[in-house]
Hints:
Layout: E1 8-16, E2 20-27, E3 32-40, H1 45-55, E4 69-75, E5 78-84, H2 101-122, E6 134-136, E7 142-144, H3 151-156, H4 170-177, H5 186-202, H6 215-224, H7 237-246, H8 257-262, H9 264-271, H10 277-296
Bound molecules: adenosine-5'-triphosphate (ATP) and magnesium ion.
Adenosine-5'-triphosphate is lined by residues 14-20, 22, 35, 37, 67, 83-86, 89-90, 132-133, 135, 145-146.
Domain Protein kinase: 8-266
Keywords: ATP-binding, Kinase, Nucleotide-binding, Phosphoprotein, Serine/threonine-protein kinase, Transferase
Binding site for ATP: 37
Amino acid sequence: xxxxxxxxxxxxxxxxxxxxxxxxxxxxxxxxxxxxxxxxxxxxxxxxxxxxxxxxxxxxxxxxxxxxxxxxxxxxxxxxxxxxxxxxxxxxxxxxxxxxxxxxxxxxxxxxxxxxxxxxxxxxxxxxxxxxxxxxxxxxxxxxxxxxxxxxxxxxxxxxxxxxxxxxxxxxxxxxxxxxxxxxxxxxxxxxxxxxxxxxxxxxxxxxxxxxxxxxxxxxxxxxxxxxxxxxxxxxxxxxxxxxxxxxxxxxxxxxxxxxxxxxxxxxxxxxxxxxxxxxxxxxxxxxxxxxxxxxx
Length: 297
Ligand code: ATP
Ligand code: MG
């Protein structure tokens, strides 16, 4: 069945990205709360139709680590995309000063399983792995969203704005500057995964704008500098080594998803029965609410 705008009650805004706005909505016929993303594109109807058709494969992306897709439609020059509402939002606003190691292990495990599922079952490379695209709910589940399934959509969202936080692997940064678009492989996602782990563990993006006078200096550090590491005081050698396996500068030296799942850090994570993800989400949300209050005052 197809969804359309008349079926929705629009509620509060959940966030804004470079390409659109995400709102909480109620799907009235089913009474299901959803998240609806609006992407404005200056395209003709044929191209918009092609995007809606390409997005259809998302109906097959059903896994515990993937945000569920409910459907998409377009009105005038906007694509509307409906997905599972994740009631604790994205990881970028939940990590505080850095998450404890057991929680980092759970997040890492979920992300790897999600990425491996996309690749093995659907032959999809994510292409935009970063904390804002990792969503959390109060049940303590961690799920991925915003992976690249539509060639037409990717082309239309001209990635001119890389922003001040790049999760792009060194070979992609180099490739872009050489206008070489054929360099994206699954190992580029592994780099972005490692960088996301560092941000969540450190509590901040590891190439902070304060340190680099401009985006060029920052990208140069990613390409030519040593990769960042998890802090020694806070994390075990196993955790630190796991992240190191993701952040090898040469793509061919990075671990595969199977290697990452087989690593002692994630083996230990799977053996543990006592990681309190629900408790962690509750505390992280309280912390986020306090920060919001301070920002308001
Ligand atoms: P970019 O535009 O660079 O991809 P982004 O991922 O932050 O950045 P969006 O994908 O437009 O941009 O999402 C905006 C914000 O909306 C996210 O940061 C997230 O906090 C929130 N959000 C997105 N999808 C959901 C969802 N399904 N449930 C709850 N919150 C969501
Ligand atoms: Mg996103």
